[in-house]
Structure prediction request, 225 residues.
Amino acid sequence: MSITMLQSSKKALRKAMTSTLRDLTQSDLQSQSEAIVAKVLALPAFKSCKTVCCYLSMPTAEVQTTPLIMNILADDGKKLFVPSLTSKNGHMDFVRLYSEEDFRTLPTGLWGIPEPTGEWRDHKRQSVLDSSCDDLDLILLPGVAFDQSLSRLGHGKGYYDRFISSYVNATKRPRPLLVALSLQQQLLDAGQVPVTEYDWSMDMIITPKDITTPEGGATHPEVDS
Prediction:
């Protein structure tokens, strides 16, 4: 498939999924998000991680992460980094979020998403790209759609794919575990999400019902554990 056709397919899928998610009730969004957060908290990879990146969620159309953010901030053994789009060059950074107070006082930006300020208590926020920062263990990613072959469709800006490529290739740091959080409606059959060579595959996709991994498709942690 040509690049032009791929981009057209991606655009069509984004439009279709946006329409589907628009019909999602707040109650359904909340209950699905709670089930997904519970699965993340029970994940061995999450329990053992020290440095984690997690997105700050929009009010609608994606898994709500506020309870997850609060849990990480309350854990002295974990450092939390969240997306920052303050740079003008189209690149995303991840900066440190220090406390519940820090989170609660973030200004609201585009699409109703909390935006980290450049400083916290008169000090520049630590970036995951700083030499003083420990290696990233885990990135919890949003997306518009996912499929059973662990492909991810983002919003079309390429922020996450560029960041991961830069983090792994330019800084020569170990590749973090990539875990996507997906509403049930967002997870499609294998091969349904069009991808290019620049699109990173996920290591794991968590929905309210299942955890999809490369080894064996969907698993039920509440049964397997």
Remarks:
- The longest strand covers residues 79-84.
